[in-house]
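Fig. S4 source data, part A: sequence.
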Amino acid sequence: MAKRVTGPEIEKLIQLLAKVPGLGPRSARRAALHLIKKKDQLMGPLAHAMGDAFDKVKVCSHCGNVDTVDPCTVCTDDRRDQSVIIVVEDVSDLWALERAGAMNAAYHVLGGTLSPLDGVGPDDLNIKGLIDRVAKGGIREIIIAVNATVEGQTTAHYITDHLAGLDVKITRLAHGVPVGGELDYLDEGTLSAALRARTAI
């Protein structure tokens, strides 16, 4: 059995950091050590920022985004085209699309995908909220931007079926050859999707 070289407070810090995605036990130890070495410049402000976030962060009741205000900053932005809604699985997908800056639309966060094997059904996701938003009117396009997984496609089909008859255009993200990608390195599914989604030039 390995000897303990730190007190319980530091061990707890390491254990909590190890739960952050992308940090394993070794990375968590390095991160904890760095925070301890920079206690005044980094650890103190980080603890304060985390306390602030814990107290103030909330989920937007309109779209499912996380922010410190409800409705969130995206929903209250007058410069956005609120008639176009991009449907994403998670807040991280919303942030990724915003970093790309390709479209100035509204969003709707589902909170995951349908997965019967994992016990995730329609009632566990924010699908009803999306249907209610569309039913109120004023929405001309729904862009389904879910991952190209079996669960993502199942979710996309479910949403499409339940939006049928609501007089809204439904589109989805293109799938296929990535920019800079080489055909020889792509899997068969990606190549098939690229051929099916071919466009005129």
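Fig. S4 source data, part B ends here. The longest helix spans residues 39-56.
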